[in-house]
Design a protein that fits this description.
By secondary structure, this protein is an all-alpha fold. The chain has four helices and no strands. The longest helix is centred in the first third of the chain and has 29 residues. The termini are far apart. About 15% of the residues are buried.
């Protein structure tokens, strides 16, 4: 039998797994795309997100592309999800 507490725990695990995958995507694109054009960054981000099966709102994608394109350091991906 599933209890509300176990459903919450399962939901939290799913969210954390998604955040971990998204962090890996961000880190990967940040590492590989230093100095790349904004269009290239966008293509690589979209490709990496497709590979892990994560969909993001366009505004979140744009903030991530801008962060990467501007050459910023690695950052906790949760800052884009707020």
């Amino acid at each position: 039998m599933t209890t509300p507490a176990s459903r919450d725990e399962n939901a939290n695990e799913v969210v954390e797994a998604r955040v971990e995958a998204l962090q890996a995507v961000l880190d990967r694109v940040l590492s590989w795309q230093e100095g790349a054009t904004e269009g290239t960054v966008r293509e690589e981000l979209d490709s990496a997100l497709d590979e892990v099966g994560i969909e993001l709102d366009e505004s979140v994608r744009e903030r991530m592309v801008e962060h990467i394109h501007e050459g910023h350091e690695h950052i906790d991906v949760r800052r884009f999800l707020d």
